[in-house]
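Box 3.1 A note on notation
Throughout this textbook, protein chains are presented in two layers. The first layer is the amino acid sequence; the second is a token string describing backbone geometry. Keep the layers aligned when reading.
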Amino acid sequence: MDIKQVQDALKKAREQGKKRNFSQTVDLIITLQNLDLKKPEQQVDTYITLHYPRGKPVKVCALVGPELKDEAEKICDKTLHVDEFNSIDQKKAKKLTEDYDFFIAQANMMGKVATTFGKILGPRGKMPNPKAGCVVPPKAGLKPLYDKLQKTLRLTAKTALMIQCFVGNEAMKDEEIVDNIMTAYKSLINVLPAHENNIKTIYLKLTMGKPVKVL
């Protein structure tokens, strides 16, 4: 896939899309091939730092002890101190997963985070993940991580040979969306065992639009 193919597909997706009363997301849909997802080493689960935010704020919830409480309250959208963990029942925990995109945790609190939130965050793919930098030491500065998460994209394929994610919205400039797509694509093929040969098709679509084939 080259940049011209992406530019042409994005232009077509915009042209054929109807005007809506909201800013539609631009979705990237990739189908994979020649992978056996029953083998963990062939599953896809990677975090990518894009050059541009994806067009809507990424909300971050911090799960911390006393060392990071003040810093987290300054930087993050929500902070839960360890003393509050026991007040979070399953219903409240599920609501948190709906309201927040990433969860970060103070490293020495991970045991309590896993005990309290593991059954809810785990199946939803939202446990604080070291690969995304979301498990931090007790004296960490959180602003760089918060800013990085605004541009972080997670690509996963564990049970089906397809990846779908949004990479921008129609209010963004074309060059920003195209850059995000190319960054995601290049990072993905680097983690696939057979690189480009594991890519079967690529489509773009607006939220309410028809898919446009890129590759």
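The beta strands are 25-32, 44-49, 60-64, 78-81, 102-106, 135-136, 152-157, 162-169, 199-206, 212-213. The first strand starts at residue 25 and ends at 32.
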